[in-house]
Amino acid sequence: MITVLAGGVGAARFLRGLVRCVPPEEVTVVVNVGDDLERHGLRVCPDLDTITYWLAGLVDPDRQWGRADERHTVAEELRRFGHDTWFTLGDRDLATHLHRTMRLHQGATLSEVTAEVAAAFGVTVRLLPVTDDEVATRITTDDGRDLHFQEYWVRERGEPNVTAVRLAGADRARPAPGVLEAVLDAEALLLAPSNPVVSIGTILAVPGLRDAVARTAAPVVGVSPIISGSVVRGMADRLLPALGAEVSASGVAEHYGELLDAWIVDDADAEAVEHLAGRGVTALAAPTLMDDPLVAAELARLCLDTAADLRRRGVGA
Amino acid sequence: MITVLAGGVGAARFLRGLVRCVPPEEVTVVVNVGDDLERHGLRVCPDLDTITYWLAGLVDPDRQWGRADERHTVAEELRRFGHDTWFTLGDRDLATHLHRTMRLHQGATLSEVTAEVAAAFGVTVRLLPVTDDEVATRITTDDGRDLHFQEYWVRERGEPNVTAVRLAGADRARPAPGVLEAVLDAEALLLAPSNPVVSIGTILAVPGLRDAVARTAAPVVGVSPIISGSVVRGMADRLLPALGAEVSASGVAEHYGELLDAWIVDDADAEAVEHLAGRGVTALAAPTLMDDPLVAAELARLCLDTAADLRRRGVGA
Fold first, then answer.
1. Residue-range definition of the domain harbouring residue A25
2. A112 touching B (Cβ < 8 Å)
3. Contacts of A41 in chain B (CB under 8 A)
4. Which residues of B fall within a CB distance of 8 Å from A71?
5. What's the pTM value of the predicted model, to 2 decimals?
6. Is the ipTM beyond the 0.95 threshold?
7. Could you give the CA distance from residue B65 to residue B96 in angstroms, rounded to a whole number?
8. What integer best gives the mean pLDDT of chain B?
9. Domain containing A220 — which CATH number?
10. Does residue B64 sit within a domain?
């Protein structure tokens, strides 16, 4: 069993490669829910849905999130009622949120609904929200505001300067059923090339998660989301400094610290391999820009091989 | 102030004529909510929405309900999750239900949301749900089933034989704010050519309504929904017999009984005028098929003139 800690697009692109290397049924993905929000009364789970739509082959190829062949009729009509529509909800996507919201109101857990949604899209990877409890990534800006992550990133286009990031509700959140076991009992635990602050960081902020990642017998192999000091997508470059971390492949590895057993950086960051070796971190360089699914598959294969090698050498246990 | 008791399409077509005769701000419409239902977690109010869309000039001209230029993307996607989609929800229409559901969850009353929706569509007629409480028209079939009205009418296409009709929740329902005043203080109280059983009948089943209609100082003028023994739309012909009423222009007048001060029948039913006169009911014949809005306006004008005439003669007071 392979377990992956995952955010949205970067993780989804990586998972698309991973399921070419191992049967999807043998993959468990623990997914960030700190970006989740309620819009127009609907529960929206951007990272869970992005992964689901990618694995179903139904993601919009241009935006790399949301549904392909999407329309926005409902959102246009909602403006009539004075709803702000800065958070794009497509018509096809909306059906997912409607189903999820209805089931949550009926008393289903987010884990249960996530499994239903995955099944409805023919996705056989096991998707687990990191928690069924309500948590929210909150962003403190240098003008003293406390914003929901999506307000900061989508509504304000990531423009404010960030001074702090926290996971509201984390103190009361419990790992969803199966999450700790998936981390502790995995053959390999992979950190997808996701935002180390608001995706992987949120997952690790749920009580019990960081400890489980530290204690797991599985080798922990991560992929850098930073290439040549830049993000492939998203705003990790704006958030890492708020945590005192350097925006570089090495900087993210050092941010994860002792959680990592191995770290994959892009070929463009090959010099980081030696730098990290000097600090006792096993690092490898490989192509990590996954526009081509074959590159994603090779990257996933390298992660698995690295984990197997570490395992043979008794690392992680 | 003119007050109209109303169901869906027939009432909407009539109201479209009425607002050509009097300023819309002077019209209050008390609307049936017994057909309302929850679909996919959304609160749907077919009669309120049909009237709103007609008065906004946005109704689908072919179906005569729902939005023009409608799509069904969300409904198609909902099938993926195993939702039955026998009740058609268009994408544009869905935005109305989303807004209403969100506001109800926030604690707004149906009256408040109805006013918001009307304003959002530029409708200045005052629309009042007959009650803010939950009621549901239930249909008993001759095979012993107890169906929601929409299950009977839409899902089963009105095919089962009906033995009884009741308004579940009526005993605990209170008239919505302003409803009793609108009936008691009107200059004229009009019964739209709506289903006498499940539209007007539901309104009258809310405690206090029948009494208010009986006591109002306003002349009560109704329009027959039956022409030549047939319904123009809907299934009143299937339901009237369950109540022991005849499916005819006279039969409906006799069903309403002493509530009526005058009754407008179609020219095709001119013989009913004399028949009803013999039973003490003032009846008039006129064109009542309102495919042309000018016919609707003339019919509305006749109702208003009849009410004014009755008022002058002291009828109703």
1. 1-317
2. no
3. 98, 101-102, 105
4. 71, 73, 91
5. 0.94
6. no
7. 14
8. 96
9. 3.40.50.10680
10. no
